[in-house]
Amino acid sequence: MTGAGTYVADLSGWSDAESRIGAVLAQTSEELAHAECFDQEQRAEIYAILQAIQTDTINHRRIAEQLAGKLSRGKVGHA
After folding, report:
1. Which has fewest Cβ within 10 Å: 15, 55, 63, 76?
2. What's the confidence (pLDDT) of residue 74?
């Protein structure tokens, strides 16, 4: 049987992965600003997609951190 500590560690890894994804998305947005192969409409569409992914990433990281906190405090039971 796996304890809450294992789940907290797993969620911490998830949160770290989400942070790395966020950093890559920020770097991609910066590179897009200097790319010359897109017209203004294409660039706007790509920015919108990157922003949506960035928002999802931030939300996923928050969920993982909140759940890890609840697990470490013993406030989440087994499903």
Report:
1. 55
2. 67
Across the 79 residues of the chain, what is the mean pLDDT of every consecutive 10-residue run?
A: 56 78 88 88 92 91 81 62
CA distance 58 to 3: 27
Burial of 64 per CB tally in 10 Å (0-12, 13-18, 19+): buried
Residue 2 CA to residue 64 CA, distance in Å, equals 18
Cα distance between residue 60 and residue 53, in whole Å:
10
Can you tell me the distance from the alpha carbon of 66 to that of 69, in angstroms, rounded to the nearest whole number? 5
Helix axes 4-34, 40-72, angle to 10 degrees: 160
Which residues, 6 or more positions from 72, have their beta carbon under 8 angstroms from its beta carbon? 4, 5, 8
Give the C-alpha separation, 57 to 73, whole Å.
24
